[in-house]
Amino acid sequence: MEEGRLAVKAVRFDEYGDVDVLKVVDAPTPAPGPGQVLVQVKAAGINPGEAKVRTGLLHARWPATFPSGQGSDLAGVVAGTGPGVTGFAAGDEVIGYTDSRASQAEYVVVEETNLAAKPAAVPWEVAGALFVVGATASAAIRAVALTGGDTVVVSGAAGGVGSIAVQLARRVGATVIGLASPANHEWLAGHGVIPVAYGDGAADRIRQAARGAAGNAAGNANGKVDAFIDTFGADYVELALSLGVEPSRIDTIVRFDAVATHGVKAEGNAAGASASMLAELAGLIADGQLEVPIAATFPLSQVQDAYRRLASGHVHGKIVLTL
To answer: 16: how many CB neighbours lie within 10 A of its CB?
Structure first.
């Protein structure tokens, strides 16, 4: 491919706004520098945080520079390498991430250290959806110091992050209570999670579920909850506190204000980001030990529709752009 040729389709937005500010434009083909890899993208997941950046809700925390690209998650094929790259070569299939808001494009430059080999058994759309949810879920599990015998509640348990977090929590031997809409209860139960409906009375339903799991967690006849992972926001931090969970064992990926007001944690994908984490999760997926539900796929040209679907809520798993 001729570097600099205006032939690469990429998502851009020139101002903060709703989904209608997103457009797919012709952009120069990026060129890898030292330690960098040029990847032809096959799939790129979309995430709620990107929508919040685009609307300006996170301007104070993560401001955009216009024109802005979009996207962190990616999977694809190595198209070229910069000087000093030794771990990858043209033709290699990879999973990775970029911190440059650039993965929603036909080609993207990625740091070699942000890439891992894609196992052949992992589908492109799953590989391209893995980074943000995988890193965030992994960080949340560590943040609440989850161990076998604990009882943990996960809000948004069937969403992108939640669906990974509940599985990782089960892998460490915890009893997992998942807050989700009834439509997702069968999936949760099938993955060893105790499903609980959200809404009025959720605290009582959680305590009842914890008591019912006393056979799996000895001594939990009083409905004790040890940890809480909030992937949804709203008033779930306050719900966790009302259940008697210590602030140090509550992690939210939405309510950043609660860190100061309640002393809880807000460790997200930045705390869990690494190529080794990607490789580990990809290996679990390839071995059939971890599932990344894919709610829908859209071609890059339909990026607006993809984010409209995300904004509609109640998404089970991930939405992915395919190229």
So the answer is: 16
Alpha carbons 294 and 297: distance in angstroms, whole number:
8
Q: Per residue in 241-257, is it b (16+ CB within 10 Å) or e — as a string?
A: bebebeeebbbbbbbee
Q: In angstroms, rounded to a whole number, what is the distance separating the alpha carbons of residues 116 and 131?
A: 11
What is the identity of the amino acid at 87? Answer: G
Is residue 39 within 8 Å of residue 107, measured between CB atoms? yes
Q: What is the dihedral of CA 123, 53, 36, 160, to 10 degrees?
A: -20
pLDDT digits (tens, 9 = 90+) for 86-126: 999 999 999 999 999 999 999 999 999 999 999 999 999 99
Give CA torsion, residues 213, 251, 138, 202, to 10 deg: 40
Predicted TM-score (pTM) above 0.90: yes
Q: DSSP for 114-130?
A: GEEEPPTTS-HHHHTTH
Question: How many helices (H) and strands (E) would you count in the chain?
Answer: 11, 14
- Which residues, other chains included, contact 310 with Cβ-Cβ below 8 Å and sequence gap of 6+? 46, 48, 51, 319
